[in-house]
Target: O-antigen ABC transporter ATP-binding protein
Amino acid sequence: MSSDLFAIEVNNVSKCYQVYDNPLKRLKEIIIPKKQQREGKVERLYHDEFWALQDVSFRLKKGETVGIVGKNGSGKSTLLQIIAGTLTPTTGSVKIAGRVAALLELGAGFNNDFTGRENIYLNAVLLGLSKAEIDEKIDDIISFADIGHFIDSPVRSYSSGMLVRLAFAIQAQIEPEILIVDEALAVGDARFQAKCFARLKQLKERGTSILFVSHATEQIVTHCDSAILINDGVMLMQDSPRVIVNKYLDLLFGKTDKKIEVKEETESSIEQHRAEGHLQDISNNLFAFEDGLSFEQRPNYNPSEYRWGDLKAEIVDYQLIQDGKHYPLVIESEHAIHLQFYIKFKDAVYRPIFGIALKTKEGVTIYNTNSEYQDIDMSRQFNAGDIMHASFSMPVNLASGDYFISVGIASCDEGGAVVPHDRRYDSIHLSVVNRVQFIGLVNLDTHISLK
Model:
């Protein structure tokens, strides 16, 4: 049953490495325990254990694309190598249903003394193709790689870009049932990347299951059906790409404890402040708008926002205006919107950073900026009770559809690490109507002239 539904099943996989301080200890562990065994003594170990992966489990459906994200050193590459069969797990098991093609490291599987053409035959044979099948596909592989006369040169003379072109061309053109890609496409230029993603789309439409590792969050959101977040060898969660990317950014720029669910921590912190009466007190008493409403009661507010931070500074209200109308339910394209945010400081914060982002409903970032990018001088300290107003105007040259605005207030600690105070992802919903006909996300107001 499972083999009919899933291309990959990873069950409680862990990987432990033995780490030695020096080569002498490695030699001692080879020799001395045998002597101690003969003498009936308890064996002494001379190594430390490093668990690169701990109890990881997930399943990849046939025809699905799953992204894997995590900080450097989190165990992503180790996991992919175990799935590809180049590493053996310490515990757990992996079930594979189909032929696997893996693009893990530049030049992996290549013989440096062979030409590119010879390496095509070598790699394809290892993947289970016959010579006749390779002969049938080799022209397509060479055309896709597009490395010119270098195809008949030894690969030791190839640049990193040429290596990845040839490696991807081999793996993708043989139409594997499972394709594993580990950051390799980051080496290629923009045109080659576009060609690669078009090919991945074709493979997916033909039923190939794809595991895709990338630090480029937009690629994860755009190309994956779901995503997995790994940190310090532990799989934290699997969810939609948009949710996972938000959690990944939190790990990069905020909380780092792998055992704490960020969302639970955030909700708990905010609920505590609500219980203390802070939010209601702020919305009722502090602002120019005397309607008694708060951020969460505005018409454009998205109740499914993702919010967290230490709340030393808090984004407590906002105003949205277009053409003199407050909080319009429909945003007319080609007309600017004006937004003003109100931030209340609960504690001392030096040099706050205010940021804003506009995303599609799928989570693709259209625009992102902050006060640091715009060289706004905020080199001063705000204290408890201080208020900051953040205002901006933005042209809405967008296609018809749904968009979300994210806002955040943060600062940096003494070590330069970003400390989030209040992050409100996808907190304001914009329903845009554009009466100009074009295809895409943004109207670039292109004028065509024909003679």
User: Anything to note?
Assistant: The chain is about 30% helix and 30% strand. The radius of gyration is 27 Å.
